[in-house]
Amino acid sequence: MKFTDGLWLVRDGININGAVQNYVVEKTAEGLTAVTQTTPITGRAATLNSTLLTVKFHSPLPGVVGIKIIHNDGVLDRGPAFELTKGTGDHVQIEETEAQTVLISGGLRVVINKGTHWSVDFYRGDERITGSGYKSMAYITDQDGNTFMREELDIGVGEFVYGLGERFTSFVKNGQVVDLWNKDGGTSSEQAYKNIPFYVTSKGYGVFVNHPELVSYEIASEKVKKAQFSVAGESLEYFIIEGPSIKEVITKYTSLTGKPALPPAWTFGLWLTTSFTTDYDEATVNSFVEGMAERDLPLHVFHFDCFWMREYQWTDFQWDPRVFPDPVGMLKRLKDKGLKICVWINSYIGQRSPLFEEGKKNGYLIKKANGDVYQTDLWQAGMGLVDFTNPAACEWYAGYLRGLVDMGVDSFKTDFGERIPTDVVYFDGSDPQKMHNYYTQMYNKVVFEVLEEKLGKHEAAVFARSATAGGQQFPVHWGGDCYADYESMAESLRGGLSLGLSGFGFWSHDIGGFENTAPAHVFKRWLAFGLLSSHSRLHGSTSYRVPWAYDDEAVDVTRFFTKLKCSLMPYLYDIAGQAHEQGWASMRAMVMEFPEDPTCEVLDRQYMLGDKLLVAPIFQENGEVKYYLPAGRWTHLLNGETVQGGSWRKEKHDFFSLPLFVRQNSLLATGSVDTRPDYDFADGVKFGLYALEDGTATTATVRDMNGAPELTVKAERKGSKVTVTAEGSGKAFTLAVKDLGAIASVDGAEQADDTTVKVNAGAKSVSFTITLK
């Protein structure tokens, strides 16, 4: 939201009271409280008829400092509020001189100027990373009596801003106006399903605005050297999070707002859906499932979209008896084929649903101010919305979900959650402005916790569209309604990379696009991208998404990349464990892995899948692709070609290939199974040791189905000698050297051929040495 008219003037009707002079800084039990004047204090008379801003500083975690700017402190806090980690503050140090008061938390120093020129500066060691200067903190009023709180933080020369949720606009947010307000707007506009009030910059720090309501950002837009954010009301709280790396910022941010849960391994397989408005029954479903099996296409999850329930009755959680007369038997038959089952739901209750009368009678639906149930015809005729601020409503909704899980359902697609009205009243008195974005958090939490309760820890996964800060705790999220073209494929990737830089570990998208039907060439290129994403789903709107509906080659491409993904599961499940433990996205923007490479700061058409694999999807019909390899030795995973990085490359690929490179000094684990994602990853695992430099060590971890490390292998090179140690399972594995020449000899294990070492099952601690020719 803009308040000024250029650099010098203020917009008509706007009054800005900005912090200009420090009055006092006091130590408190939580940290520090500063009081700043919005007009210069020239004498006692200047303290009359004046506006003060109270600025409170506290630190819940090392390297994380909260700053709360308050005008009037008598405002009732109606909630909701983000659930944040509450630290003790024992790690905080306070230092004071005549000129400054300093709060130190981990590697972050906050310097408050005591002089006549108000400023707060944030340092990493001796490096100033950002700051709030003269008049940046401000209390603002407009001609209608509305009040706002604003902050402006400095953006340095060459500094880029990322994140703010799943945004489909330019990957670098500099120059953008971003209003965080969840909307069902597709993937081709400035609107977003997942609005996260957190950004991270190329300088290695992040800013989290602790407000679930609308947060309005001007990122180098209203003032080109400022990141401005504002909220309506009388107070504004934000956190500065110091890295020093982007990965460390995200670790600390997710320590504050919640780590992603670890999805079960089966969710990483191929999902196939009925699509949205297509006609289907059990025979149709069986034709899809059998068609996949007949064509040797591994399939792991079958999803029933909206019309598993009868039209006009969404959501009633009842199978439409006209097309699914025996749902229990049908689900059993599908599960006997090794499939997991997902069904579509939303939190909207159509008037024709039997649940509507239950919800109305018991007060489970959101109401208007006069006590009527809030209703709309947008989506389902006369629908109401479940009021998740009512514990009884949560239990009511959860009860229907439990019944479906007992029937055989393994996951729920938690669609919608964005079109939440603000002219309503909640059961617990929550502020409707804050609930608009926060509603999805309560919705997904109820569903996720039912799955975790019924199926067990690390067995729960939703397929969610909307989110706010903290939503990463309830994976998986997908990108929403995209068109079936290359442009939407690219905008989807931009959205996913932005979401990954907002603390979300897992992300998916509709392979081939949702709206319309893609030409076969788009579908086949999207297959490679989709099956090299953390989660992979074939889904559409008005047409079926079975590969043979496109052409015969699409069948072969589906088979190739599905089997490739299954074989990569030992590696993919380890990076899933990293997402769960550290908050790092499985699909990582290049800047996250290569923060020192300036070329990587703006790349948004390629990504790192974990820390070892580089993926560059192809967005052209002719198969041409231009991509960048950072410095170092890279080995193409599919054809073994090795190239030197540090430059751009332009190539042409058929549908069975794309730029897919293994980073040098990598130990990459691949599995012995290529038909399913959930298997014993350590049994017969194969390690590839890629371009290990002299004097360098690298490790790989193989996890079990609970995400716990089962086998850890380390390789260290000194000259022509590579020493390998393995701790863990005691199961057989092989290790092949890649781009290292041939093996001359092996001491302590069996040499299988010129490039491969075989370790037999037995000892849980193994050590051997490879001598290279």
From TrEMBL:
The Glycoside hydrolase family 31 TIM barrel domain, residue ranges: 260-574
CDD domains to which the protein is assigned, alphabetical: GH31_N, GH31_xylosidase_YicI
InterPro entries tied to this protein: Alpha-glycosidase_related, Gal_mutarotase_sf_dom, GH, Glyco_hydro_31_C, Glyco_hydro_31_N_dom, Glyco_hydro_31_TIM, Glyco_hydro_b
Residues covered by the Glycoside hydrolase family 31 N-terminal domain: 56-213
Domain Glycosyl hydrolase family 31 C-terminal: 586-667
Keywords per UniProt: Glycosidase, Hydrolase
Keyword Hydrolase carried by entry: yes
Statement: the UniProt record of this protein carries the keyword Nucleus: no
Family label: Belongs to the glycosyl hydrolase 31 family.
Protein name according to UniProt: Alpha-xylosidase
Organism: Paenibacillus helianthi
